[in-house]
Fold:
Amino acid sequence: MNYENKFIELQDELKGINIDLDNYCKPEDIYLLQDATDLYDLLNDHAAFGEQIIGYYKAAKYLSINDPSFHNSINWAQQRGYKVADFTSELLASVHKSQTLIHSFWNCEKEINNIIWK
Structure:
């Protein structure tokens, strides 16, 4: 399978988790990928997982739907080195959304590898 077709298949797979591959690489970059880890590194280097939620209302609404206990958001923020004094609703919502994207990516690891290895 040529790189253009692989790119299109990867693009379709990543659209399911709201990542637009066009924003981070070109079809000819696909030949550099050995596996999903390489794609993750490429996307991460270009801040594809760096979602920001700006505004108290948006952040509070996002958290009330996705992490009402703040358990995951606080845990992930602490893992990233933030201290309790740094916590704002915007920070926690952004960390949660970014981490959710990362988890969604790794949930597609098998499918991504199958495309790369064709």
